[in-house]
Amino acid sequence: MSNKLMGAAAIILDSERRILLVKHSYGKNNWDLPGGKSDMHHFVFISNNENNQEPEPSSPEILECRYCSIDDLPKPISDFTYKRNRMLYSMIDSFYSTL
After folding, report:
1. CA–CA gap between residue 11 and residue 90 (Å, rounded)
2. I need a surface site. Which of 14, 31, 96, 97 has the fewest CB within 10 A?
């Protein structure tokens, strides 16, 4: 097994199909998908919040978390994160259209 760190991200939606984003206490482009680094494997989770529970920060590294419409993403956010969220939303939308 490698000593390299691997990233993990979670895609969590509410019943209005808004994406959960977190605001980090570090970095200049600090809104992103919830996730982190690990020396294990790389995971991406897709989840759905059907009860519309309000998210709450779970560590000092998270200043705020909220569900965001793809058309109203918070700032600051990097171009990479913006494009990744647009791509993920498109994939999620395609998934829901098959149900």
Report:
1. 13
2. 97
What CATH number was assigned to the domain covering residues 6-97? 3.90.79.10
Q: Give which of 23, 35, 27, 34 is closest to 74, Cα–Cα.
A: 23
| Mean pLDDT, residues 71-82 | 89
| φ, ψ for residue 33, nearest 5 deg | -65, 150
Task: Give the whole-angstrom CA distance, residue 85 versus residue 26.
Answer: 20
Q: Which two tokens stand for residue 3?
A: 């000593």
35 exposure class (CB count in 10 Å sphere: 0-12, 13-18, 19+): middle
Write down the domain spans for the chain.
6-97
Q: Which two tokens stand for residue 70?
A: 């793809």
